[in-house]
Amino acid sequence: MFARIAAVLIGSMLLGVGINGFLVPHHLLDGGIIGLALILHYYFDFQAGLWSALLSVPLISYAWVKDRAQFHGSIYGMIMTAVFIDLLAPFQFQLPIWLSAILGGAICGIGVGLMLRYETSTGGTDLIAYFIAKVTPLNIGLSIAIMDCLIVLIGYQTLGLKSVVFSSITILTAGVFANICYEGFK
């Protein structure tokens, strides 16, 4: 129980740091629900954390039906991630875009992977990836990367080619680190 709570807190904090510290300064995207929330943030100036939670409600509802243990971990993860994203919004680092893409992806991937390892999640598409990994041979990192790339393509219209290219680097990095944290070095 203590390990799960720690995973939610640390994973959520890492996501808040990765997103605000590295992605937001360059208008880069994470994938999944948080990526959609970032698109809304960049285009309409909506709070990314709040919108990531609101957009996750249907996925959390699905977890309620299919896997109550995952639901409980995800509802807390969703809330804490939303809080940390909005709470840490003022903290941004001014690094080159390529370095921000890599570091932001690594930090976000570690946060997501840590949460998934302890059967928690942000309630976003990483929750979908968790369910996919349980019933298919696709590993969780690859599932996250595929869904996240689709979200980045949606962002192309709003953010342009440069953001899509560096956001793709972010997402691939995040997928690798999430998989390592979730499965270990196998």
Automatic annotation (TrEMBL):
Pfam families, alphabetized: YitT_membrane (PF02588)
Membrane topology of the entry: Multi-pass membrane protein
Membrane-crossing segments per the record: 7-28, 48-65, 74-91, 97-116, 128-157, 163-182
Principal subcellular localization: membrane
Domain of life where this protein originates: Bacteria
Keyword list, A-Z: Cell membrane, Membrane, Transmembrane, Transmembrane helix
Location of this chain's protein in the cell: Cell membrane
Protein name: Uncharacterized membrane-anchored protein YitT (DUF2179 family)
Native source species: Cytobacillus eiseniae
